[in-house]
């Protein structure tokens, strides 16, 4: 603290402290706490309350009707008291309806339906699989880019990799939808050679397969795998590969013993990044599946918030996703032996 | 042995070509459909070349408003993220190991957090103060992680900063403010430009965080997202073409300017 | 510009468990060229940071011009520091660099640039003001740093081994130049170095430091001729060190039994106790070839240094180094020689730490 003051002086330290405090507290930490808080309580279902209110109103109407017909003053006073009590009950119920009492507990976490739990697990496992597939697909590309025979070819390859990313993620996914759709590019090609008949609705339902989802996710996140691996490979002296080859090592052995060990930090960064993006992916499944290819967990979260309007359950879902994906990220960091600093390079 | 090696290289080249096809296929489909007169986005039902969808896009009020909102939000995010990222980086360079490690982890945590969760937590938090989702919340939610990118950019530059320059300036009687203005800011100027561009693009392109915090407002990207539910016309493809053309043009300009600057010494 | 005095009064600096400076007291005269000489890690840089204000003492006081500097930051002290790496501002022109201290004092642009140009003339850099520091040579950058420091008219100029990055020729040239600038300006110079040659040639006085303590303060010739401790004796100039036991002791004189026999020499401070361990120090240039008995041995190596030969003479486990004038017959390796030395050139010091242990 004193170090900061000495380095920047009072006014500047204050500005720095305010900005960082605003960011880390107001924008980062406290919202997460608020989300956690939301996930830990629930309110009585409104349906029960409104029925009770309806009942009380009916009773009050009856009592009022009786009161008007009643001539006996003693009975009338009794009815008056009953009416006042009913009105109080109604006011209480209505107050409860606008702000029902919160019940704190883990109910939002324990109440996840088997289907939702299944989708949650499937999302996490699929995200891991996407990362693995992306690694296999992208490793040769990173290798080719890092060891391109001429700088010119390397530059062309890099540009070629970057251009498709000029389009927004949503549009890229959407383009894939046009390819995989029932009447899309692929099925039209199939129809042209007689493998499908679009008129008879005899087509290949690509969109209902996990394969289409994987194809699209890998294509959308490929760059996040290629670049870190390429960056670490560029620091590998090509002479090492030549020396290994000179010593008679096979291509497999060269990769297994020389190239991959060197690329490990980059591979770790790529796998972790792609896993994170896939686990939290929203645009890809939303656009691609249109509800046919099975849900991704992020879509369930979205629906809890904006369709079921149950923010508490939605928060619990979101928090579960956060904790599990962070846990897996840290587990992978340990397994690969990379630090936070390397991940964020 | 050399023959085997050449064969290996040929396989790799073929694979690279295949991969590029994989990356460019959606791009091609997107672009072709933008010029197709068929009313649904398609490349298989070719009804003739048209520029109609670009025209339609130019008249699409919601898209244009979305573009305005996107630019406004991106500028706001830049205006917030740059000073925050700079302050955070400066703080980190002056801290001792323990506190530094903890703060660093906290600062990069938004990058490791799924985007939708940043949007959700912002939405939930501000509801306690009666603020509903909207452009402002989207800006705050985006800033939470974009500031981290800016911080990392500044930190990388500051690691190459010679701290004795600050001592020299103080020794010559400079106030901390003057040191900041005359020594630190000029040194950081190139990374400020980088951070501003990164922040702007990150904000402009963002969907996951924004869609959860935007409420009834919309940006260009969330508008595209909602069109997928409520009927699409190839005007969306036209946007894609505009994106690609703009980006490629900027890239060419960047390379060109870089070359000229180098030529001039 | 007029230099002022600098006084350190029983100063301690500790970093955690490490005591960087132990009970240092120094008095630097106004307008003096004062060097602090010591091996790396001896605390001399800490001492400089203490005077410039980047470091506060754990105990003791720092006074400049009689004023206590406690709590005054580096930007509020009448000192200017020249950093080891110079720390020029790479993005500013040379003129702006020199004018920076004046800018910090709110002096209008035209005036401060004019003064910067005058200072650039003083350090023989006229017409180079528009360049960036990166476009200058090492020696020129050195002079920019000096001009920049002088621009704020400091009473005390602190220099942290500023010549260490230069090559030998340039270093020797810059020594003369620094000395000349100091004479011209009258500013108090406090110069940090580990290079005894630098300290001996430029300084009015030198403080020799070791392990956070000042071992001795004195004029260069004093330090060379009358070192107070074995460390100073061996750090400043070359030295033959013979270890032995004091056999007899009288004021100003003692006899020590060494592997080369009993040697009688002068003592520096007080009489060492008989029976205690002591060093006999002999400068190589004080040993001369003789016919008499004295110190006998075999030449093991002979190196020509130009004006003199360096003879390595071995006798049992003891090795002596002698500088012999390059005239007449010089013994070849393998030859038996005898070396003579006057008792006045043998200094007897109590056993202690030496610089080349």
Automatic annotation (TrEMBL), chain A:
<feature type="domain" description="ABC transmembrane type-1">
    <location>
        <begin position="120"/>
        <end position="334"/>
    </location>
</feature>
<keyword id="KW-0472">Membrane</keyword>
<keyword id="KW-1133">Transmembrane helix</keyword>
<feature type="transmembrane region" description="Helical">
    <location>
        <begin position="12"/>
        <end position="34"/>
    </location>
</feature>
<comment type="similarity">
    <text>Belongs to the binding-protein-dependent transport system permease family. CysTW subfamily.</text>
</comment>
<keyword id="KW-0813">Transport</keyword>
<dbReference type="InterPro" id="IPR000515">
    <property type="entry name" value="MetI-like"/>
</dbReference>
<dbReference type="Pfam" id="PF00528">
    <property type="entry name" value="BPD_transp_1"/>
</dbReference>
<keyword id="KW-1003">Cell membrane</keyword>
<feature type="transmembrane region" description="Helical">
    <location>
        <begin position="154"/>
        <end position="179"/>
    </location>
</feature>
<feature type="transmembrane region" description="Helical">
    <location>
        <begin position="211"/>
        <end position="230"/>
    </location>
</feature>
<feature type="transmembrane region" description="Helical">
    <location>
        <begin position="267"/>
        <end position="288"/>
    </location>
</feature>
<dbReference type="InterPro" id="IPR035906">
    <property type="entry name" value="MetI-like_sf"/>
</dbReference>
<feature type="transmembrane region" description="Helical">
    <location>
        <begin position="119"/>
        <end position="142"/>
    </location>
</feature>
<protein>
    <submittedName>
        <fullName>ABC transporter permease</fullName>
    </submittedName>
</protein>
TrEMBL record, chain B:
<dbReference type="InterPro" id="IPR051789">
    <property type="entry name" value="Bact_Polyamine_Transport"/>
</dbReference>
<comment type="similarity">
    <text>Belongs to the binding-protein-dependent transport system permease family. CysTW subfamily.</text>
</comment>
<protein>
    <submittedName>
        <fullName>ABC transporter permease</fullName>
    </submittedName>
</protein>
<feature type="transmembrane region" description="Helical">
    <location>
        <begin position="12"/>
        <end position="35"/>
    </location>
</feature>
<feature type="transmembrane region" description="Helical">
    <location>
        <begin position="183"/>
        <end position="204"/>
    </location>
</feature>
<dbReference type="InterPro" id="IPR000515">
    <property type="entry name" value="MetI-like"/>
</dbReference>
<feature type="transmembrane region" description="Helical">
    <location>
        <begin position="104"/>
        <end position="126"/>
    </location>
</feature>
<feature type="transmembrane region" description="Helical">
    <location>
        <begin position="71"/>
        <end position="92"/>
    </location>
</feature>
<dbReference type="Pfam" id="PF00528">
    <property type="entry name" value="BPD_transp_1"/>
</dbReference>
<keyword id="KW-0812">Transmembrane</keyword>
<keyword id="KW-1133">Transmembrane helix</keyword>
<dbReference type="InterPro" id="IPR035906">
    <property type="entry name" value="MetI-like_sf"/>
</dbReference>
<feature type="transmembrane region" description="Helical">
    <location>
        <begin position="235"/>
        <end position="257"/>
    </location>
</feature>
<keyword id="KW-0472">Membrane</keyword>
<feature type="transmembrane region" description="Helical">
    <location>
        <begin position="132"/>
        <end position="155"/>
    </location>
</feature>
From TrEMBL, chain C:
<dbReference type="Pfam" id="PF00005">
    <property type="entry name" value="ABC_tran"/>
</dbReference>
<dbReference type="Pfam" id="PF08402">
    <property type="entry name" value="TOBE_2"/>
</dbReference>
<dbReference type="InterPro" id="IPR003593">
    <property type="entry name" value="AAA+_ATPase"/>
</dbReference>
<dbReference type="InterPro" id="IPR027417">
    <property type="entry name" value="P-loop_NTPase"/>
</dbReference>
<keyword id="KW-0813">Transport</keyword>
<comment type="similarity">
    <text>Belongs to the ABC transporter superfamily.</text>
</comment>
<keyword id="KW-0067">ATP-binding</keyword>
<dbReference type="InterPro" id="IPR013611">
    <property type="entry name" value="Transp-assoc_OB_typ2"/>
</dbReference>
<dbReference type="GO" id="GO:0005524">
    <property type="term" value="F:ATP binding"/>
</dbReference>
<protein>
    <submittedName>
        <fullName>ABC transporter ATP-binding protein</fullName>
    </submittedName>
</protein>
<dbReference type="InterPro" id="IPR017871">
    <property type="entry name" value="ABC_transporter-like_CS"/>
</dbReference>
<dbReference type="InterPro" id="IPR008995">
    <property type="entry name" value="Mo/tungstate-bd_C_term_dom"/>
</dbReference>
<dbReference type="InterPro" id="IPR003439">
    <property type="entry name" value="ABC_transporter-like_ATP-bd"/>
</dbReference>
<feature type="domain" description="ABC transporter">
    <location>
        <begin position="6"/>
        <end position="236"/>
    </location>
</feature>
<dbReference type="InterPro" id="IPR050093">
    <property type="entry name" value="ABC_SmlMolc_Importer"/>
</dbReference>
């Amino acid at each position: 603290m004193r170090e900061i003051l000495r380095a920047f002086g009072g006014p500047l330290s204050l500005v720095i402290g305010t900005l960082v405090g605003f960011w880390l507290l107001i924008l980062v930490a406290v919202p997460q706490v608020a989300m956690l808080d939301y996930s830990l309580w629930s309110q009585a279902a409104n349906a029960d309350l409104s029925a009770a209110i309806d009942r009380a109103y009916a009773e009050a109407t009856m009592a009022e009707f009786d009161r008007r017909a009643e001539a006996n003053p003693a009975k009338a006073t009794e009815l008056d008291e009953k009416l006042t009590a009913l009105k109080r009950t109604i006011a209480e119920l209505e107050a409860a309806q606008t702000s029902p009492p919160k019940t704190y507990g883990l109910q939002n976490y324990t109440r996840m339906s088997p289907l939702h739990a299944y989708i949650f697990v499937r999302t996490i496992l699929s995200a891991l699989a996407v990362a693995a597939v992306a690694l296999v697909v992208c490793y040769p590309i990173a290798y080719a880019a890092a060891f391109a025979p001429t700088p010119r070819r390397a530059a062309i390859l890099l540009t070629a990799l970057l251009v498709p990313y000029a389009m927004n993620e949503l549009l890229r996914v959407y383009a894939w939808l046009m390819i995989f759709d029932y009447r899309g590019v692929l099925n039209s090609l199939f129809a042209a050679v007689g493998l499908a008949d679009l008129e008879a609705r005899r087509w290949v339902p690509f969109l209902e397969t996990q394969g289409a989802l994987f194809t699209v996710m890998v294509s959308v996140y490929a760059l996040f795998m290629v670049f870190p691996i390429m960056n670490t490979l560029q620091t590998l002296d090509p002479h090492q590969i030549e020396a290994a080859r000179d010593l008679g090592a096979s291509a497999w052995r060269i990769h297994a013993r020389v190239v991959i060990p060197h690329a490990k930090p980059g591979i770790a960064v790529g796998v972790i990044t792609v896993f994170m993006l896939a686990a939290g992916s929203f645009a890809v499944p939303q656009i691609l599946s249109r509800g046919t290819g099975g849900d991704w967990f992020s879509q369930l979260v979205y629906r809890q918030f904006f369709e079921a309007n149950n923010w508490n359950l939605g928060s619990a879902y979101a928090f579960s996703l956060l904790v599990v994906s962070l846990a897996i990220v840290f587990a992978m960091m340990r397994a690969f032996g990379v630090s936070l600093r390397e991940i964020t390079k | 042995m050399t023959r085997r090696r050449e064969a290996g290289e040929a396989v790799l080249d073929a694979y690279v070509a295949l991969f590029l096809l994989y990356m460019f296929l959606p791009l091609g489909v997107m672009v072709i459909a933008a010029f197709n007169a068929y009313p649904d986005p398609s490349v298989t039902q070719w009804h003739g070349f048209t520029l109609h969808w670009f025209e339609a896009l130019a008249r699409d009020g919601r898209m244009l408003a979305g573009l305005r909102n996107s630019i406004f939000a991106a500028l706001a995010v830049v205006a917030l993220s740059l000073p925050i990222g700079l302050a955070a980086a400066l703080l980190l360079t002056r801290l001792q190991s323990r506190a530094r490690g903890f703060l660093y982890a906290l600062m990069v945590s938004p990058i490791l957090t799924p985007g939708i969760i940043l949007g959700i937590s912002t939405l939930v938090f501000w509801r306690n103060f009666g603020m509903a989702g909207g452009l402002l919340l989207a800006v705050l939610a985006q800033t939470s992680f974009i500031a981290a990118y800016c911080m990392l950019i500044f930190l990388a530059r500051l690691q190459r900063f010679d701290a004795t320059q600050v001592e020299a300036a103080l020794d010559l009687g400079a106030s901390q403010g003057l040191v900041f203005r005359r020594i630190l800011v000029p040194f950081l100027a190139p990374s400020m430009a980088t951070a501003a561009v990164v922040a702007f693009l990150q904000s402009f392109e963002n969907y996951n965080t924004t869609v959860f915090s935007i409420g009834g407002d919309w940006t260009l990207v969330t508008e595209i997202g909602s069109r997928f539910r409520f009927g699409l016309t190839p005007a969306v493809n036209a946007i894609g073409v505009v994106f690609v053309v703009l980006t490629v043009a900027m890239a060419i300009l960047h390379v060109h300017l870089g070359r000229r600057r180098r030529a001039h010494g | 510009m007029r230099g002022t005095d600098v006084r350190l009064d029983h100063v301690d600096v500790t970093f955690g468990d490490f005591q960087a400076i132990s009970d240092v007291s120094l008095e630097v005269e106004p307008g003096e060229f004062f060097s602090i000489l010591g091996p790396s890690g001896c605390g001399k840089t800490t001492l400089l940071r203490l005077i410039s204000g980047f470091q506060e003492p754990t105990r003791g006081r720092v006074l400049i011009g009689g004023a206590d500097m406690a709590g005054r930051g580096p930007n509020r002290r009448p000192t200017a520091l020249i950093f080891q790496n110079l720390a020029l501002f790479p993005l500013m022109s040379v003129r702006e660099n020199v004018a920076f201290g004046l800018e910090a004092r709110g002096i209008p642009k035209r005036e401060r640039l004019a003064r910067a140009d005058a200072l650039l003339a003083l350090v023989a850099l006229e017409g180079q003001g528009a360049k960036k520091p990166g476009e200058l040579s090492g020696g020129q950058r050195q002079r920019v740093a000096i001009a920049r420091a002088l621009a704020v008219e400091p009473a005390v100029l602190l220099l942290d081994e500023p010549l260490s990055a230069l090559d030998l020729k340039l270093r020797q040239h810059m020594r003369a130049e620094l000395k000349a600038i100091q004479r011209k300006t009258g500013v108090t110079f406090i110069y940090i170095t580990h290079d005894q040659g630098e300290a001996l040639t430029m300084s009015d006085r030198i403080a020799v430091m070791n392990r956070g303590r000042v071992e001795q303060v004195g004029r260069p010739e004093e330090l060379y001729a009358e070192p107070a401790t074995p460390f100073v004796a061996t750090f400043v100039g070359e030295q033959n060190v013979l270890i032995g036991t004091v056999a007899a002791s009288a004021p100003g004189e003692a006899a020590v039994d060494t592997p080369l026999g009993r040697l009688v020499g002068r003592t520096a401070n007080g009489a060492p106790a008989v029976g205690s361990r002591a060093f006999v120090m002999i400068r190589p240039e004080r040993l001369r070839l003789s016919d008499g008995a004295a110190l006998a041995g075999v030449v093991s190596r002979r190196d020509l240094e130009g004006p003199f030969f360096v003879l390595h003479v071995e006798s049992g486990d003891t090795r002596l180094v002698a500088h012999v004038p390059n005239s007449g017959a010089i013994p070849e390796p393998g030859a038996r020689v005898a070396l003579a030395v006057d008792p006045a050139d043998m200094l007897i010091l109590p056993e202690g730490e030496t610089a080349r242990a």
